Amino acid sequence: MKIELKAVEKYYNRGGSNQVHALRGIDLTIDANETICIHGPSGSGKSTLLSILGGIIGPTIGSAVVGGKKLARLPDRFLTLYRREHIGFIFQRFQLIPELSVLENVTLPLLPLGVRPAQQKKRAMELLEKLEIDHRSDFPAAEISGGELQRAAVARALINDPSIIIADEPTAHLDTRLSEDFLSIMSDLKKLGKTIVIASHDPLVSESPVVDRCLYLRDGALAAAF
Ligand SMILES: Nc1ncnc2c1ncn2[C@@H]1O[C@H](COP(=O)(O)OP(=O)(O)OP(=O)(O)O)[C@@H](O)[C@H]1O
Ligand SMILES: [Mg+2]
């Protein structure tokens, strides 16, 4: 799905003494079949930009149009529905529920979609196998390694077969082989026509043939594209 940001500004705590102007004048169009990498220093606004692209937060000023729909115009419950159906988000801090098993975490996004339990489990186990963590499916998320958590987070993001995949530093906790596996999964998704946006410091990601275009963020502004 095509994503368009127009004149986006994002402030946190606007007007307060702790105000942060996190994004400035962002104009960005991402085509439906594009894979984009966003890099830039810590605090430059990468996670903020991804959250806006994924409909998790709205811009303070400007607009985000995804698949022809203006996100700011959607009431909250539609926005939630929209995220559940179309977006797969791999968070920088994973956001898995520690007490639930890997399998339960991965199937969680399917609960509100009314998918039958047997079907949920089948699809989740296929993804876990592909990501080589099926042997951890019954472990509580609290008891697996950083790299395993990362892959469980990838499985959870893909369980709803999203048209847009957004990944925040997806390879930060992975070794080279697992990072390459992650990129190969992205490459398969790209072939299916998915839109992929990855924030990453990792040269393995930014220099990967999977990535069509890299954007550089500095102090909340897009500095260059190459
Ligand atoms: N919820 C929030 N409330 C207030 N300020 C925030 C919030 N989230 C982020 N910020 C601030 O906004 C700026 C951009 O943060 P963001 O997390 O988008 O950066 P980033 O590029 O993802 O950094 P990193 O590489 O460290 O993950 C930073 O100055 C950060 O402190
Ligand atoms: Mg970040």
Short description:
With 226 residues, the chain is of the alpha/beta class. It is 32% helix and 26% strand.
Descriptive terms for the model:
226 residues; alpha/beta; Rossmann fold; six-stranded mixed β-sheet; four-stranded antiparallel β-sheet; 7 helices; 32% helix; binds adenosine-5'-triphosphate; binds magnesium ion
CATH homologous group name: P-loop containing nucleotide triphosphate hydrolases
**What percent of residues are in strands?**
25-35%
| Small ligands present | adenosine-5'-triphosphate, magnesium ion
In N-to-C order, the SSE pattern is EEEHEEHEHHHEHEHEE
Q: CA-to-CA gap between the ends?
A: 22 Å
What does the largest sheet look like?
Answer: 6 strands, mixed
What characteristic shape results from the CA principal axes? globular
Structural class: alpha/beta
Domain unit count: 1
Rg for CA atoms: 17 Å
Tally of contiguous helical segments: 7
CATH topology: Rossmann fold
- In CATH, the architecture is 3-Layer(aba) Sandwich
